[in-house]
Each structure stands twice: as structure tokens, then as C-alpha cells.
Amino acid sequence: MSANARVNTVTETISRESRNVQYPQKNGKVQWISEIFGQNVFSLNEMSKRLPKPIYSTFLKQIRGNEIIDKTTADAIAHAVKVWAMEHGATHFTHWFQPQTDSTAEKHDSFLTLKSTFRGGYEETTALDTFSGSQLLQSEPDASSFPSGGMRSTFEARGYTVWDTKSPMFLQEGPHGTAILYIPSVFISYNGEALDEKTVLLRSSEILAKTTIELLDLLGPVNEGTTVSYHSHHVHTTLGTEQEYFLIDRGLYSLRPDLKITGRTLFGGLPPRHQQLEDHYFGKIPTRILAAMSECEMELYKLGVPVKTRHNEVAPAQFELAPIFEEAMIAVDHNLLTMDVLHRVAHRHKLKVLFHEKPFKGVNGSGKHCNWSMSTDTGENLLEPTAHPETNYRFLLFLVAILKALADHGGLLRAGIASASNEHRLGAHEAPPGIISAFLGDHLNDVLDSIEQDRPLKKFGSSEFHSVRVGGTVLDLKVATLPNIARDLTDRNRTSPFAFTGNKFEFRAVGSKQSVSFPMTLLNTAVASSLQYINADLKKQMGDKKFASTEDKITIIKKYIKETKKVRFEGDNYSEAWAEEAKKRGLPNISNCPDAFAQLQDKHNSDMLNKLGVFSPGELNSRYHILMEKYAKDIQIEAETLRTMVVQHILPSTFAYRRELAETASLLKSAGSDSSPEANALNALSPIVVGLQKAAAKLEEAVDEFINIEDIDELGKAAHDSLFVRMEETRSYADKLERLVADKHWPFPKYAELFLNI
């Protein structure tokens, strides 16, 4: 790789034209979003039009969990979806699933079938397009080729993908104007163990729904502060995932082996101007980026993904896309689809999307803020405080259940967000630290404190609070032409890993590259476990009563307010003072992945996950091995990539510059001129070059030692304590050389070019 290639590519990006895509038109006018929304989805509405009423009715019972799908129903649905898909140009179908790789997987099969008939003693073959119920229901990928944590060996290859009937099938664009039918699926082994992210998420959702309905039944048909007048028969979690990402020019990306191989820059210094002026956040979206965003949104609308918001993020070249809330099962699928579509559309615009949590050192990284709540089958949000949360005992019981989940299993939730990439971001004064705590806001905190202390709420206009009313106060801006502004009840806390934001919790610590399935699985299960304790205590408190009385509810709420007080924190989560305070409270401060993954094997956590049936002991053990092995391999790949770039590119470029300086100094000296400037520059380089050579050699030794480690626990520890440390040392020298070596000799695009050439 040469400096000329870098300069030429930088120049090319300046003249690169934006891709022009025609937005869907109708009668010469741009179609409304609602007109194209979901047009590539085989929705329940589409299904109802194409299926006989008895078949459709049977399917509705199946997705509610009341019946098992039979062959007749499966065959009818398979035929209907085949006809619909082929009408839209589909030639192939695929079972789309979520292996434990933070991505998706698919194997395409055509609708083609051959039928043989014999005519006059000769065999005649006829081509048919068919799709059977059995083909719809399951397929068979090679289970030994996906992460299994030892549950599957190479000679035990059989695994199954099984259609997730609650997640609608959809079409994706194929080559040459064709399309592919996608069938959302779970992925299990021959023996039925979960090999994917979705199976355990479905299990966790079911146990959470069961324990939630049990509590609602105990509370009775009418609850103070709510409008509920009948029982709920189904409860589901809702989720909205805010996706942050970087976009850079693909030509420049192609000249950075570290970005291509690892997803992040392994060296590189900040330019004079980056994010310190705080002018990129919510700034004007660059034209080329807006074109890519718009095309991405157009595709997502057709796929039924309710994307709502787009904007510049804090760091240069960083952006965000956020959807409307949905049922969590669908929201997870849609987030993975969003990442896939962003990747493909960026490619068309000669851009590269980076989902790594920290692709550039020194500027903000990316997260995936998961806005989580629970809803009944009537659409009522169980985390809605209503106008009087102090007497909305149903809300308060669910609130303390969630706080108990954090108090009892905070370390487990920390394990759910741990990865080699997110480790660079957590606690880096842009993302929450490794201490799991909850932010409730002044008002809810006072509600809980007042119940615990048997005192009235603080009144409106007190010195502590401006208001205790939902909706907060009204702000008068003292400008006649501006309307009064309704201020929210509480401020936001961007430093909190788990913040209450009005009627939901925002789990801010999830990494941008992660599938949200695993952290949501752990959260669902921990809350379900808490609800079991609350339900048991409430039953005991109720005695022979059919429904809990107000006194019963208050007694249980008060008990759990006291038990969970340690996880409530309203201040700056980045501060050292909080780390000290959290230690006093007994909250774990887990700063690295090996320690986080160990939480999966902690008896308190593993017993809970096994008892509720979300993970079998074997599945949980395999999950630990998969996560630890992936972490170690990620760092090993980074280490080997960095060493290669240093030895094959950075050092040779530096040598060329040193030779140029030496030759110039020699010529000047022979001509009788002062050569000290060149000599000084040469002397400044020498100790750094020597330091880089030594650091690269130590890094290579560390890699050689690392690859001989067999024990999985030692492997993870060595990755963190040895490889990562050696990499940081090597990088420090490389970054110094980038600042000193003449620009014309430097082979790799610099941060200034990667940030600005979009």
C-alpha cells in the first residue's frame, strides 16, 4: 500500500457524485410512507386475503399458543406465500436465523422441483415451482459450522431451523430484478438445544408474560390510578432500538486493513478538529449521507420496519436511526434487518457503514439504546406511571420488580453487553460504566422515598422540585411570539446504563454491533425471577383474600423499595465518586469481558436462568464458552493485524522518510549548509522507530504464547492482560510516527480524511 494510493483515493472522493434513486411514485407524485409500508411483508392482513377462513382462524390460534400447527394449515400457508412471493419476483426462499455471531444467517433454496413421468417406456422430466408445508416449517443447516460452545462436533452436524410463526415472512431484493422469500426462524441442534439468539429470547418472553399475568390476576380487575377493568390474557415486552453507526467513504475504507479486518482503527491520531466544538450533533446531514439514509429508509418501509428518526450523532461521520416501538420479538428482527439494509445501501453509495462500538479512538463510540417496557393485549403500557404514580400500585409493583432484577442480577446484565468491541466504549465518558444502576428521576425517587418513610410527597413549588405533576411545569420563555413549553417531569441522565424515561426503561449500555436478543433475554428473565418473588410475597400477605388489598400492595412495595435502594442513582455515573459509592453499596464494577462472562457461571445467576427454563445447564455453559472464545479470537485477530500493518507498512514508510532526511542532510552538509533541522528531525524519529520495533516484537511473542493456550478461562485472561496491553503499547508508538512522518510517505488514510470525505 502506497501513499500515492491514499492521495489518489482522497482526491476521488471529492468528485464522487451522489447516487440518485427514484422514490416510489403514484400518479406522478411521491407516494406516502403509509402507502409503501409493509408492501414486501406477508402480513396477517395479506394472509387473511389469501387463505381460506378456517385455515386463517386456525393459524391465529397457533400464534397465540393455543394450537400446534398441522400439516393442512402449513401446506395452505406455504402455497399462499409461494404464490404471493412469486408474484413479486421471488425465485428462492431461505430460513433466516440468528446464530450466536451477532448477525444473521441464511441458505437459499429455489422453488424449483423436478417431476418425472414415464411415457411409452421413456422417463420425461418436468420442471415445477413448488413449496410445501414441510419446507416452510423447517430446514437443515450444518450445525457444526456455527458457534455451539462444544454442544456440536464436526461429526455431529445436523441442526434445524424452524419457522417462527409470530414473525412475518418478507421479501428481500435479489439479483437481476428477482426477490428472495425470507422465513424468520429459530435454530436448534439435533437434540433440541438452542444454538441461536432467538430461541432463548422467546423462552424468556414466555416466562415473563406468565409471571406478569400472575401478578395482574392477584391485583384484581380494578387498580387505583389506572383504567383497567378486566384481566389481561397476554403480556409482551415492547422494544425500540436506537441504532448508532459511522459512515465513511468506501474507497478510503479499502485502504485501511484494520477497518476491513477488525472493524476499528488500530492506530491513528485525532485531527485538530473533531468533535470538540460540539457542532456535528443534530447538524445538517451531508448530502451524500442523506441520499443513503433516504434509500435505506425506503427499503425498510417496504419491509415493515417503522423507522422514525434520523440525525447526526456526536462524533464526526457518526449518525443514528431510530424506530417506533414494537413487540420485542419483531423489534429484534427489524433491528437486524436495519443493520443489513444499512450495509447494502451504503455499499451502493460508495460508503461503508461501521457498526463497531469504537472504530475511532478519541471520539464518541456507538451504542444501541434499547427502550424496553411491557404491554398488555389491550395495548396498555404497564410502566406508565399515570397522573398519580404514588397511588398507582400496579405500576409501583412492576417498578420495584425491575429494580430488584438489577439489584439481584446486575452482574448478569453486565455480561449481556460484554464484547471485545463494546469494552472500548463502556465507561469512556460517552457511555455508561460497568456498574449497573437505575436512574428514576427526582419525582419517582420521591414517590418511593415517601412510601418508604410514610410521609407525604414533596409539594409543587418546593425548593427541591419544580413540580410533582406528570407533564412537569410550564416554561415561560419571555418571548411573546413563542408558545409556552411543557417541561417533562424529570431531566434525562445520559450517563445512566438503565434510565427510566417516562414510561419505559432505556438500556443504554448495549453495543451498536450486538444483536439485542441476548441482553433482552437476560433482562426479561431477571425481571421474571423478581416477579416470582413478589408474587409469592403478595400471596402470603393476602392470605385467603381473592385479590390484594391496598394495604397488601403497599406492604410489598415498601419491602422491595428498601431491598432495591442500592441500585438507584441519580448522579454522574462517569465520576470516580460513584465508583467508590457503588463499592460501598455492594454493586459490582465489572471493567472487562472475562470478568463479565464469569457472571454466567456464577451460581446465583445460573441457578435462576436454569430454574426458569430459559437456558439448560448445557446451553448456558456453551454460551459462556462461545462468548469467551469469540472475545479472545477478536483480540487475537486485532493483534495480528496490527503487527502486520506495522511491519509491512508503517516501518517501511518511516524508513523511506528517514532515508530522505538522511540524504538531504548529507547533501546540505557537503554543500556547506546547515543540516541541523533535518538531523534533528531524523534524531526525533529514531527512538520512536526503535520503540515501535521492540513493541511489535513483544506483540508477536505474546501472540505466539497466546495461540498455545488451551484453557478457555486462561485464554480470555491472556487476551485482556497480555495481547490488549501489548497492542496499546504498539499503538502509542505508531500514533507518534503518524504525527512526525511526512504526509507524502504515510500509506494509510488518516482520521481527518476518514471523517470529512463523505
TrEMBL record:
SMART domains: Gln-synt_C. GO terms for biological process: glutamine biosynthetic process. Residues 197-650 form the GS catalytic domain. SUPFAM superfamilies: Glutamine synthetase/guanido kinase (SSF55931). GO terms for molecular function: glutamine synthetase activity. Residues 91-192 form the GS beta-grasp domain. Belongs to the glutamine synthetase family. This is Glutamine synthetase.
